[in-house]
């Protein structure tokens, strides 16, 4: 995903031509936000892998992923672009965030079809599907940050994190209404959806591919990193993941990860410094590394303020439209 959109004739064109991640303003969250802290941490690599695996428990999303086939045709590029999109929303200025989100929504309008497992129609922009993707991503980032990073957020930070999660949802077709606003509400959301979650041969194949991509498909660097992150990712999976998929729990691996957790936290703390963080990320995901480098090197923007998604859309984007519900 591009970091910036093409300049136009408005007063901010010169700032956009600078090509900075936050040329115009401080984005949707701004300095000191919990989102910047969590999403820019090296634990985000683990959180992202967790999210894209768990997403496959939604049968409609699993069908969309399998039918489109992008992760099989270009797994490295799809990983880099999708993770880069999420980082752009969290770290970019408001124009970059809203334009990028609208571009992805337009791409998703072509991703429609019928799920062979349930017989239901799917649409990548369906509000329910987008809400699942959004909540799983933000929950996974927080879980990885807590398990392998600095630890649990304090009460005020956690409230702010979930409020920022709802803010980011305004860029999706789901909107913020159904977004959990606390850890407890997130648990309730997953409990409500649990009866509708299921798996299939295609979904299990997709999850295995995302956890352990083949060497020939992704190259040596991502192949090696994925083996390490998969071991960490699987220790964070909820009980319903194991019950639904039927995957055997790697108990010895889980025990080893728990024993090594203090060392892992220290490693992540060292890797959180800008130089190693961008070097590590760039080695396996060039677009994401470029975004992190721009984030850490960002100069004061043209307008030192944050904008709401509604303000950003009014100023920089097309009016927001909702995707009609898919036919069941």
Helix content: 55-70%
Number of strands: 2
Spans of at least 5 consecutive residues with low confidence: 1-18, 323-328
Radius of gyration: 19 Å
- What topology, given as strand order, has the largest sheet? 1-2
Dominant shape? globular
What's the rounded overall pLDDT mean? 89
Q: Main β-sheet: number of strands, strand sense, barrel status?
A: 2 strands, antiparallel
Strand content: under 5%
- Structural class computed from helices and strand pairing: mainly alpha
Number of domains: 1
Protein name: DUF2236 domain-containing protein
Organism: Actinacidiphila epipremni
InterPro entries: MPAB/Lcp_cat_dom
Region (Disordered): 299-328
